[in-house]
């Protein structure tokens, strides 16, 4: 009998609830909690079958989290709330002795910066308490890290060059919208670029480096070098890597909107006075932009996310490309969400499953690539995110 608590009722939380509810052999009891209980109730009603219990909780407040966790007594807490709330939820899990899993690393609310140091600092406390914390179990970070671990285990003696490529070739029909929380999305893609090369980080201006890359079933798309959090853990856990980069596609119209948002100050994360009230421009912008969780109905096209790797196997150079393509309409038909939410929520579900079935279980704080990739990779094929691999091909990078 396994009990799981999901915190967060956005698009990703919707997918996690749907997928867990369809797996009663693993997830016997499920609670979905959020600051707004009505959102949880709507998701639970849509799933039906009395599979989902719901609750209200403010994830910024450790005592509220502790009270809810102690009342429900889950085996694991799955955090799909905001990255700002990672540490309070980790604190609550530590206090209650419950395992923890998230999909994105912590970033402070008052600074557009994300890195793992804050969460890695919990390792000894979790280890001493005998609790498992699993970090970054979405798609990127998450599946891309597991793809890398799978490649290292089965196809390479040494990985030298890693390029993670993320293409969303879908069309939602809106002039401008973000595919996940606008606050987080805009903060992420407007930061300076950064990549790992020869033992050090190299910083670039936002979107300074870009080139066309060809994506399976999609074709050529302009791809931009940005910084993404899994690079930090992957170069730590695979020290043979000489260079690691992350590429993401953006349409010209999207970038134009983004530049305007920045130029007029709407991407600011510091408060400004408006009619005597402090407001944060990016939080106001989030309120007027389309809700990412409601984009799915008219979303057409596919995502394509994967790893392009070059390294050595049996003394010879080898190239390898492993990827998943996900169709927005197929994702919407199953869960009522678009593919970006789907590709994050399914891996979070599988990660919780790995813990509950004992396949990923160790005291301490771990990134997903530190566990055995094989059982996770098997479940991806079963749970809606099948992967493909190409050997000794032109990886374009």
TrEMBL record:
Saccharopine dehydrogenase-like C-terminal domain ranges (all copies): 138-385
Pfam families named among the record's database cross-references: Sacchrp_dh_C (PF16653), Sacchrp_dh_NADP (PF03435)
Coiled coil region boundaries: none
Residues annotated as domain Saccharopine dehydrogenase NADP binding: 4-134
PANTHER family: CARBOXYNORSPERMIDINE SYNTHASE
Protein name: Carboxynorspermidine dehydrogenase
The species this protein was found in: Thermophagus xiamenensis
Lineage of the organism: Bacteria, Pseudomonadati, Bacteroidota, Bacteroidia, Marinilabiliales
